Amino acid sequence: MTQMEQDHLVSVIVRDEPRVLTRITSLFGRRAYNIKSLSVGSTENPGLSRMTFVVTGNRGIVEQAMRQLEKLIDVVHVIDHSLEKFVDRELVLVKVIISNETRVEVRHIAEDFRARIVDVGRHALTFEVTGDEGKLTAFIEQMRPFGILETMRTGRVALTRGSNADIPSHVYHDGESAGLHAPAQNHAPREQEAQRVENLF
């Protein structure tokens, strides 16, 4: 990453419609941005899903991309987590080679990370670890000397913390925190609103 580039954590509430994911990811692809992680799951509202992704890029250009996301008819709400206090988690499955000599040491390291054993084999243990990005990376690096057979890492998921009442109002561009309101109170089609957004791509 250059000095002007950084990771941005963004959540998008979308309708459960075909090809929505393709339209959203292609929007970033046209600007040659790499999506580092992507998670999609259902929300508390039937018919809506939450996409959370990490994209690397210049702050100003990423803001333009988020404005373009809001133009899409199937997008209900865009949340820029850099403007809010949030909690985020990620999960990783790691299959580690073990022997009679290393079994106890591997288990002790896993306990330090509060990792859970989800599969036991004669020559390998599979661990499940949940936490922030730093914790998962550290666990993988601790296990690497023993030999890692496979890893599977989910994308980050995030939610805005509480009501954000402790955050100064000047950090918001347009009034109070989005965390004070449910993100999908009204998800009727927004064709007229979309037409008013300048096409930035």
Helix-strand blueprint:
Elements: E1 5-15, H1 20-29, E2 35-42, E3 48-58, H2 59-71, E4 75-80, E5 86-97, H3 103-112, E6 116-120, E7 124-131, H4 133-143, E8 148-153, E9 157-160, H5 191-195
Antiparallel strand pairs: 1-3, 1-4, 2-3, 5-7, 5-8, 5-9, 6-7
Percentage of helical residues? 10-25%
Query: What Rg do the Cα atoms give?
Result: 20 Å
What is the rounded distance between the termini? 22 Å
- Indicate the low-confidence ranges by residue numbers: 167-180, 189-201
The number of helical runs is: 5
Element order: H for helix, E for strand: EHEEHEEHEEHEEH
Give a count of the beta strands, DSSP E runs of length 2 or more: 9
- Outline: elongated
**Major sheet summary line:** 5 strands, antiparallel
Instruction: Give me the secondary-structure category.
Output: alpha+beta
The mean pLDDT is 81
- Amount of beta strand: 35-45%
